[in-house]
Automatic annotation (TrEMBL):
Keywords from the named record: Ammonia transport, Membrane, Transmembrane, Transmembrane helix, Transport
Top-level taxon: Eukaryota
UniProt xrefs under Gene3D superfamilies: Ammonium transporter AmtB like domains
Cellular component, GO annotation: plasma membrane
Domain Ammonium transporter AmtB-like: 35-447
Region of interest called Disordered, as start-end residue ranges on this chain: 481-504
Listed NCBIfam families: amt
Localization per Swiss-Prot or TrEMBL: Cell membrane; Membrane
Main location per the UniProt record: membrane
Name this protein carries in UniProt: Ammonium transporter
Family named by the database record: Belongs to the ammonia transporter channel (TC 1.A.11.2) family.
Keyword Transcription: no
Membrane topology: Multi-pass membrane protein
Length: 504
């Protein structure tokens, strides 16, 4: 009987087991790699929950605080289920097509305890597969959480519930396998150290085109989009910044020197970007903005992501200068001049600027400033970027970006149209729900005290089930941050203080 097995029998069974239990005893790292990888994964997980959850809850209007936070919270949970059932293997397993792996689950205990490998690349890591699955899950999850920022304030939550697994399956897995799992972009030589393309360029592109298909927020919500709690925005932003140490520091898959380089460069680029954005605000709007500083912080984090461990410190500084100025210009100047985009692409938090534009800057900058030593430390054979005499790397980076952008434009559109026209689920909330916000959508309010849309007697009656239909032009119940909202009708007043409606 099993209960009578001796210690010798147990040791013999362990010795003959095909399961990978411990790293090579002759290795100087091994168990340290596993500890760091789990720590890095936890830091990245905290970026989503609670980082972006509280950031979204604070940066949106009071009436959208719960809905915005819940969209992020839901995505984190839904992605994990899909990830272990089929999406991890489609992203990092054996090749099925040049751009995607074979879907399969990773639920068996033998699989979880086995040594982590990337079969399409032919490399192994000094930790179990379970660690790798969780580490890559938090990256997949934050991609959907970031994208949600473009849809806040009007997307039908039921449509979002369907969209998350479909987009993860049909879009994220393709980018991840193509660049990280050994797919055709990896073989071409495109460098994406930690997700500038896989995560940020894809989420920014999907958020941009998705905002078109979903439709805009209510005019009044666009006209007055002041955050309900800037202090919670700063809390979320702080978690996001420090969590990025795991985001970029975990991608060498080892507790090694390159991880240290990635962490230092991450913080250096971010600081430069934040200060650059703040200076731009001061020169253009004549005052520094806390929300602007958060935007600059995020664009810096995004831009360094594809380059973190392969550029020198001066390369990180140059990336920070670019990420603090170019997205600032596209958000605060260019976007306001392109009236067609402003009318038809209501990207709530400016994800196209802070993630798509910044992600492209980071990828392009990687092609310019990647170093030979940095690439070698990361295990790449690329002979650096243009600064190292390898100018063709810039072309590879642009080609990779074009594929990610094109794939996401097409598949995000197809997924949303499928939900709307085949499944018959509206992408946008009803006008009544849009008017009331959290109370109508979830039956909950973020703040017990203080005025909000639902406190108007007629709106409260609607929540109780009475058929009271109100129009945007006649409802004056909304109060925000200290007083009644003026119903501006001039589109030029949408950003009265020179800031976008969040821009995260």
């Amino acid at each position: 009987m099993a209960g009578n097995a001796t210690a010798t029998d147990a040791a013999a069974a362990a010795t003959s087991s095909p399961v990978w239990w411990t790293p090579d005893p002759n290795s100087g790292v091994g168990s340290g790699d596993n500890a760091w990888q789990l720590t890095a994964a936890t830091l990245v997980g905290l970026q989503s929950v609670p980082g972006l959850v509280v950031l979204y809850g604070g940066i949106m209007k009071k009436k959208w605080a719960i809905n915005s936070a819940f969209m992020a919270f839901y995505a984190f949970a839904a992605v994990l289920i899909c990830w272990v059932l089929w999406a991890y293997e489609a992203s990092f397993g054996e090749e099925m097509l040049p751009f995607v792996g074979k879907p399969n689950n990773v639920l068996g205990i033998d699989r979880m305890l086995a040594q982590s490998t990337l079969p399409s690349i032919g490399v192994s890591q000094q930790f179990p597969l379970a660690t790798m699955v969780y580490f890559q899950f938090v990256f997949a999850a934050i991609t959907l959480v970031i994208m949600a920022g473009a849809f806040l304030g009007r997307m039908n939550f039921y449509a979002w519930m369907i969209f998350v697994p479909l987009w993860l399956t049909l879009s994220y897995t393709v980018g991840a396998y193509s660049l990280w799992g050994g797919g055709f972009l990896f073989k071409l030589g495109v460098i994406d150290y930690s997700g500038g393309y896989v995560i940020h360029l894809s989420s920014g592109t999907a958020g941009f085109i998705g905002s078109y298909w979903i439709g805009p927020r209510l005019a009044r919500d666009r006209e007055d989009a002041r955050p309900n709690n800037i202090l919670t925005v700063l809390i979320g932003a702080g978690i996001l910044w420090i969590g990025w140490n795991g985001f970029n520091g975990g991608d060498p898959y080892a507790a090694n020197a390159d991880a240290g380089v990635a962490v230092l460069n991450t913080n250096l680029c971010t600081a430069v970007s934040l200060l650059t954005w703040t200076v731009c605000d001061m020169l253009y709007f004549k005052k520094p903005s806390v929300i602007g500083a958060v935007q600059g912080m995020i664009t810096g984090l995004v831009a360094i992501t594809p380059a973190a461990g392969v550029v020198a410190g001066w390369g990180a500084i140059l990336l920070g200068l670019g990420s603090g100025s170019i997205p600032w210009f596209t958000m605060n100047v260019l976007a306001k001049k392109l009236k067609f985009l402003e009318r038809h692409f209501d990207d709530t938090l400016g994800v196209v600027h802070t993630h798509m534009v910044a992600g492209f800057i980071g990828g392009f900058g990687t092609g310019l400033w990647a170093t030979v030593d940095g690439c070698a430390a990361f295990g790449l054979t690329n002979p650096g970027g243009a600064v190292a005499g390898n100018g063709i790397q810039v072309g590879y980076q642009v080609a990779g970006a074009m594929f990610i952008i094109g794939w996401n434009l097409v598949w995000t559109s197809l997924i949303l149209l499928f939900i709307k026209y085949v499944l018959r689920i509206p992408l946008r909330m009803s006008e009544a729900d849009l008017l009331l916000g959290d109370d109508a959508v979830h039956g909950e309010a973020a703040y017990v005290f203080g005025p909000c849309e639902a406190h108007d007697p007629e709106n409260a009656g609607y929540i109780q089930g009475e058929e009271i239909m109100r129009t945007v032009s006649t409802n004056d119940a909304e109060l925000s941050l200290g007083g009644p909202v003026a119903h501006a009708t001039n589109p030029e007043k949408i950003h009265k203080n020179g800031e976008s409606s969040g821009g995260i």
